[in-house]
Design a protein that fits this description.
- By secondary structure, the chain is α/β, with parallel strands linked by helices.
- It folds into 3 domains: about 45 residues, Orthogonal Bundle (434 Repressor (Amino-terminal Domain)); about 120 residues, Rossmann fold (3-Layer(aba) Sandwich), CATH 3.40.50.2300; about 120 residues, Rossmann fold (3-Layer(aba) Sandwich).
- It is elongated, with a radius of gyration of 25 Å.
- A 6-stranded parallel β-sheet has the order 2-1-3-4-5-11, with helices on both faces.
- Helices cover about 45% and strands about 15% of the residues.
Length: about 325
């Protein structure tokens, strides 16, 4: 393996002092244009890459933000990360994306890794309650897609309860009387809030219903769809991926959507309007949530905010072809 190129090698190649090379790399003080060009030419020739960790120890920051998400295969999180990354890139930050696979213990490991990498801040969209850990690592953190009732932390989320309530009221107004509700894991904030809205709805209207619990995946929708023996008026799914699986399981059984049963989702990920039938769902401003979370972490890092800002978005009912008046 060839020896690692150092600033000493760059200085020798450019015929300048090591301190001059350091000033060019770090932009710490002015350097004559001609001298700077010589240094840059030497850097290019020798394929030199500055030691980011060493630089962070000198200046106290890395211009890097960590993002922890539970499932990178879910298009919801891909869009969320894209919103954050686009904004942070415009501000000169790099992003480290960490996927926990919905495992709380894995999230603990990821926090340690990001702390070791000396990230400047963390955007957290995981499933665990790590408040003590957050306080220990002493890194600015913004929560995404969950509400934290702790004024030491900022969060960006949407009103999951109200979004589900609007969907259920629409279904009731279109004469849906018998319900199956497929929830995500209750440990997940969004799943808990959507289930809470459904439970309140059933108490209010005294409708006939069945509760199933799954995960925010297509496979979970397939499995739970096959469990439904008595076909209701509507299957309300806690997210779009579950709904896709339910519709597919019904197709295998020759059960038509929406002729025989309505199916709804939640999130309005990019494929839902292209799905067959196009999915009735609740739209979240996913990209915007990621972007706003990134704006907040940036403002916290440059000390423009003296308080912990929060943002709660409202969601929008989107009626498409997977539902009909019963």
């Amino acid at each position: 393996m060839p020896d690692k190129i150092t600033i000493k090698d760059i200085a020798k190649e450019a015929g300048v002092s090591i301190s001059t090379v350091s000033r060019v790399i770090n932009g710490s003080s002015p350097v004559k244009k001609q001298t700077k060009e010589k240094v840059l030419k030497a850097i290019d020739k020798l394929n030199y890459y500055p030691d980011a960790l060493a630089r962070s120890l000198r200046v106290g920051y890395t211009d890097t933000i960590g993002i922890i998400i539970p499932n990178i295969a879910n298009p919801f999180f891909a869009t969320l990360v894209r919103g954050a990354e686009d904004y942070l890139r415009s501000k000169g930050y790099s992003v480290i994306i960490c996927n926990s696979d919905n495992a709380v213990d894995q999230e603990e490991k990821l926090f340690n890794i990001l702390a070791e990498k000396k990230v400047d801040g963390i955007l957290y969209s995981g499933i665990g309650d790590h408040i003590d850990k957050f306080n220990q690592i002493n890194i600015p953190i913004v929560f995404i897609d969950r509400v934290i009732k702790d004024n030491r932390f900022s969060y960006v989320s949407s009103n999951h309860y109200k979004g589900m309530e609007d969907l259920l009221n629409y279904l009731y107004s279109t004469n849906h009387k018998k319900y199956v509700f497929i929830s995500g894991k209750k440990e997940i904030f969004s799943a808990f809030e959507r289930l809470r809205a459904f439970e309140d709805f059933t108490k209010k209207y005294n409708v006939e219903y069945e509760l199933l619990e799954g995960e925010y995946t297509y496979k979970s929708g397939l499995i739970n769809g096959k469990k439904i023996k008595k076909i209701p008026d509507v299957v309300v799914c806690s997210n779009d991926l579950i709904a896709y699986g339910v519709v597919e399981s019904f197709k295998e059984r020759k059960i038509k959507v929406p002729e025989d049963v309505s199916v709804t989702g939640y999130d309005d990920i990019m494929f839902s309007k292209m799905f067959s039938p196009a999915l009735t769902t609740v739209s979240q401003p996913i990209y915007e949530m990621g972007k706003v979370a990134a704006e907040i972490i940036y403002r916290l890092l440059i000390k423009k905010d003296d308080y912990m800002p929060v943002k709660l978005f409202q969601n929008q009912l989107v009626v498409r072809e997977s539902t009909r008046r019963r």
